[in-house]
Amino acid sequence: MSAPILEVRDIRQDYVVHRGLFAKKKIVHAVKGVSFSVEKGRTLAIVGESGCGKSTLARILTLIDAQTSGELIIEGKRVDIAREKTSPELRRKVQIVFQNPYGSLNPRQKIGSVLTEPLMLNTDKPAAERRDLAMAMLVKVGLQPEHYNRYPHMFSGGQRQRIAIARALMLNPSILVLDEPVSALDLSVQAQILNLLADLQDELGLTYVFISHDLSVVRFIADEVMVMYLGEAVEHRSTDAIFADPQHPYTRTLFAATPRADPDTIRARVAAKARARA
Question: Is the whole model's pTM more than 0.85, yes or no?
Answer without folding.
Answer: yes
